[in-house]
Amino acid sequence: MTPPDRRDQPPITADEATTLTAFLRYQRQTLEWKCAGLTPQQLATRAVPTSEVTLLGLVRHLAAVETGWLVGFGGLPYGMWPDVVRDRDEQFRVDPATVTADDVESAWVTWRAVGETVGSVARQLPLDTTDRPWGRDDEFSLRWILLHLVEEYARHNGHADLLREAVDGVTGE
């Protein structure tokens, strides 16, 4: 398994939005890499008996996290966002006995569409735009949210690495 090549990322420039979205894109590529080549059943396997977390659950969860932070942000239309699994427990509740290739494909299609939408938000709004994300009391800047999403992916990619190793022994960077 070959990790995503960091050299494919744009160089760090004065364009902070490009830099932030490039790091976010790299973290997304890492998640995709951690899940590559697995069957639907492997993606839905609870590799740690005490945890509901699965690789497929992480894909669904991260799509919901990105959406949750940015849906309606900066006055952009709600309708531009793909429909995601909103219930946190349901995001992770995946049964390897009943999961199908269509379930997996649907999760990836939604996840990719969310990533495209986040990119659209970052292209449309200045990084200093502040707003109250849906369901939150405090205001956050787009810059803060993008940094938070990079951190969220980095943390969950660590989980994905451990899950992948438990599923089939493959380890990565």
List the defining traits of the structure above:
173 residues; DinB superfamily protein; 2 strands; 6 helices; Four Helix Bundle (Hemerythrin (Met), subunit A); 2% strand; two-stranded antiparallel ribbon; DinB/YfiT-like; mainly alpha; MST-like
Task: Explain what the structure shows.
- This is DinB superfamily protein.
- Pfam families: MST.
- By secondary structure, the chain is mostly helical.
- It has one domain: Up-down Bundle (Four Helix Bundle (Hemerythrin (Met), subunit A)).
- Helix content is 55%, strand content 2%.
- The protein is built from six helices and two strands; from the N terminus they run H-H-H-H-H-E-E-H.
- The chain has helices at residues 16-35, 40-43, 55-70, 88-92, 101-124, 142-168, and strands spanning 130-131, 140-141.
- Strand 1 and strand 2 (140-141) form a beta hairpin.
- Helix 3 (55-70) runs antiparallel to helix 6 (142-168).
- It is globular and about 45 Å long.
- The mean pLDDT is 91.
